[in-house]
Specification:
Layout: E1 6-11, H1 17-25, E2 28-35, H2 38-50, H3 57-60, E3 61-63, H4 69-74, E4 76-78, E5 82-84, H5 87-91, E6 98-101, H6 110-115, H7 128-139, E7 143-149, H8 162-172, E8 175-176, H9 181-185, E9 186-188, E10 199-207, H10 214-225, H11 237-241, E11 248-256, E12 259-264, H12 280-294, H13 303-314, H14 359-365, H15 378-387, H16 391-407
Parallel strand pairs: 1-2, 1-6, 2-3, 6-7
Antiparallel strand pairs: 4-5, 7-10, 8-10, 9-10, 11-12
Length: 410
């Protein structure tokens, strides 16, 4: 346990991936979390209670809309979000050392822009960073951590480059961030022990009242301190999920309670490791694709071949290929929130199982521990996991920030 614990507030906390990684370091004390999705708050409260023994988890995990900033600070009571004494009374004049979190990324993601007819230019989520900055200005932490998708670097809602606007707002608030965001702050989590190709922008901001040479401190942070925590080897899908119980294709589809199953067993003893239902057509497609890779035939490795297979098997056409089989010997492709819709781009490598990945497999590829329980519906659990910061990366980020703070005398 570190001698000194830094007080933190987490905004847009989700189910708590970033928080969990920070807590694993032993160097951070969570004062409060803010999240507007009710189920994510329930998951986070339970994690704080069971894993980290917080007795006040119900009070400090605030289910509320951050855009209602004044109420968030001073307290509220309404039908949708229940009631709270507010952030100011919870913080109770304690020093806030770090504020962390990332606004919802759909408005910045390339996928979101492709799917939206206006390219997400009019999406209110483009401006949630303004609420983030208001909380930073209220508590003036020494450091903030702002996490988001790579697409934020090219997003231009209203024709304005969002990253330039964010940079200007932080400068106005008297914080310094790196001037070379793409070079320094765009990080590949697979380099930090996450068995997944996942690029995210991690902007660390320094309060100019505390850091007299913030540019130099940030250069050292990104180029010396954080890289010290890179992994010696790149972890693979096999490293992450190979030891989990396997499933067999059932001869007949069956039902247990309200759920349909195409694989057996449906109960494994591992939390939330149960197979999704797949119709016979999809099972056959998964088997064909994974066997093609296993045997080295590689007939379906091009986009055009996958599109042709999709049309042949479904009678539909698609401008993008729908399928991707995970490779045992490589990191997974990015685990997205879209997993809640289907798992066609996350097909298990074993052709004998011929299925998409389970909630627990998605969680492992995101580096959540098996004792981290997601308590919503299966589709919503996939969404939570896909939206989260990978805890193992967050752990290493927390170690690097701790080292930076110590070096600067805090």
């Amino acid at each position: 346990m570190s001698e000194r614990q830094y007080n933190t507030i987490e905004l847009f906390a989700g189910c708590g991936g970033l928080l969990d990684g920070f807590k694993q370091t032993g160097s951070y004390n969570t004062l409060a979390c803010v999240e507007w999705e009710k189920k994510q708050c329930e998951v986070l409260r339970e994690r704080l209670k069971t894993k980290y023994k917080y007795k006040n988890a119900n009070e400090i995990v605030l289910n509320f809309d951050i855009q209602r900033t004044d109420e968030l600070l001073e307290g509220w009571s309404d039908e949708k979000y229940s009631s709270s004494i507010g952030l100011n009374k919870i913080v109770d004049n304690r020093v806030v050392d770090i504020i962390s979190g990332g606004p919802p990324c759909q408005a910045y993601s390339m996928a979101g822009r492709i799917q939206d007819k206006d390219g997400m230019r009019n999406d209110y989520r483009n401006y949630l960073f303004e609420s983030y900055i208001k909380i930073v200005e209220e508590y003036r932490p020494k450091v903030f951590v702002f996490e988001n998708v790579e697409g934020i670097l090219s997003a231009k809602p209203g024709g304005i480059n969002i990253i330039d606007e964010i940079t200007a707002k932080f400068e106005e608030a008297n914080y310094t961030i790196t001037k070379e965001i793409r070079k320094n702050a765009l990080l590949d989590f697979s380099e930090y022990g996450v068995p997944q190709k996942r690029k995210r922008v991690i902007i660390v901001g320094l309060n100019n009242e505390y850091f007299k040479q913030p540019d130099q401190v940030l250069q050292r942070f990104y180029n010396v301190l954080l890289p010290q925590y890179k992994s010696e080897k790149v972890l693979t899908v096999k490293d992450a999920i190979f030891d989990l119980p396997h499933f067999e294709i059932s001869d007949v589809e069956y039902k247990v309670g309200r759920k349909n199953y195409s694989h057996t067993p449906h109960v494994t003893g591992v939390p939330q490791h149960e197979p999704r239902f797949h119709n016979k057509r999809d099972v056959e497609i998964f088997k064909t694709l994974s066997y093609d890779i296993l045997t080295g035939q590689n007939k379906y490795t091009s986009s055009s071949a996958l599109q042709e297979l999709y049309t042949k098997m479904t009678g539909k056409t698609s401008n993008v290929h729908k399928y991707h089989v995970l490779r045992w010997d490589k990191p997974s492709n990015t685990i997205p929130a879209h997993l809640k819709k289907d798992g066609l781009r996350h097909i298990h490598p074993d052709h004998k199982q011929a299925r998409t990945i389970t909630v627990r497999e998605a969680a492992r590829l995101q580096t959540f521990c098996d004792d981290f329980i997601f308590s919503d519906s299966t589709s919503k659990n996939y969404e939570m996991i896909g939206n989260a910061v990978s805890p193992r990366f967050a752990y290493k980020l927390g170690l690097a920030i701790n080292k930076m703070m110590k070096e600067e005398g805090y």
